[in-house]
Amino acid sequence: MSLRGKAVLITGGGTGVGKGIAKHLGALGAKVAICSRKNEILQATVAELQGAGIQAIAQECDIRDPAAVEATAAWVLEQYGRLDVLVNNAAGNFPALIADLSYNGFKTVVDIDLNGTFNMSKACYEAWFKNHGGNIVNISAPFEGAGIPYQAHAAAAKAGVNSLTRTCAVEWRKQGIRVNAIEPGAVDNTAGVDRLAAPLTGSTLADVAPCTPTDIAKAVEFLVSDDAVFINGQCIAVDSGTGVDLLKLNL
Ligand code: HXC
């Protein structure tokens, strides 16, 4: 129960990786708050978490909207009286080659993934972290430094998330705030992988046994723990080595 008494906010916490993080941190004693755009899904997840003995609450929030994001940060503080961990997990995605990607399609994914991460980080900083310290973990992607067909929008956004991770860490470290990112590879049974499966068929990524949301959650657990007190501004791949497999020989 290493997170007993701590409060965590997870964006996109109703499904997939976010839900896995909520379950895992909740099982370690954290009070969990989740938000996303779909209230029905949030309520079902809250019921599931509560059924497992986890203290959990949910609020609808579109992280593209700064006013909604500020209201969500205020709501967590009102409900739990503190905020120890923010996990920026919410993301939008669909596979599309640049030739088939509309201006608005590109903008939509960047707005959710990058601007949404900025919005929530800043809102929580202003509302709590700047005076109390805390941990932010951004769920990014192992896309930086490469060309990623079908993922121009998401790859650009996630590279921005990595950059933002480093800058937040540097600007905020003296206030006791650590900001790190996790770059998951393929995670089983998630919307992202289900949607990307077809274009990825035949690639090394498709051949690797996918990890589970719990594998990602365990990395979050470590990063927000005191064992990681000197880890700050890092973007860590949790991808079974697919990102560093440059030759793709499938050994
Ligand atoms: C081409 C598409 C499209 C598609 C949407 N658009 N889906 N273009 N192919 N499949 C375009 C629309 O035509 C529109 O542009 C613009 O995007 C906005 O679409 P809306 O539906 O109006 O926007 P909105 O409802 O706000 O959001 C759409 C969405 C969202 C971004 C697709 O519904 C979403 O993200 N859903 C899935 C969530 C998800 O899978 N999350 C996991 C992410 S995984 P026009 O020009 O027509 O107006 C991840 C990491 C993966 O991030 C790593 C794997 C290795």
Structure description:
- The chain is α/β, with parallel strands linked by helices.
- It has a single domain, classed as NAD(P)-binding Rossmann-like Domain (Rossmann fold).
- It has helices at 16-27, 39-51, 66-80, 103-132, 152-172, 191-200, 204-207, 213-224, and strands at 7-11, 31-36, 56-60, 85-88, 134-139, 177-184, 235-238.
- The protein has a seven-stranded parallel beta sheet, with helices on both faces.
- The longest helix has 30 residues, at 103-132.
- The structure holds hexanoyl-coenzyme A.
- Hexanoyl-coenzyme A binds at residues 91-94, 96, 102, 104-105, 108-109, 141, 154, 186, 191-193, 195-196.
Keywords:
seven-stranded parallel sheet; alpha/beta; 7 strands; binds hexanoyl-coenzyme A; 251 residues; Rossmann fold
Global mean pLDDT: 94
Q: Give the biggest beta sheet.
A: 7 strands, parallel
Roughly how many Å apart are the termini? 40 Å
Give the CATH H-level superfamily.
Answer: NAD(P)-binding Rossmann-like Domain
Order of helices and strands: EHEHEHEHEHEHHHE
What small-molecule ligands were found?
Answer: hexanoyl-coenzyme A
Radius of gyration: 17 Å
CATH third-level topology? Rossmann fold
User: Structural class per helix/strand content?
Assistant: alpha/beta
Total count of strands: 7
Strand order, main sheet: write it out: 3-2-1-4-5-6-7
Oligomeric assembly: single chain
Q: How many helical elements?
A: 8
Strand content range: 15-25%
The figure for the number of domains is: 1
Question: Which bin fits the share of residues in helices?
Answer: 40-55%
Q: Any idea of the CATH class? A: Alpha Beta
Shape: globular
CATH architecture: 3-Layer(aba) Sandwich
- The low-confidence runs, each spanning 5 or more residues with pLDDT under 50, are none
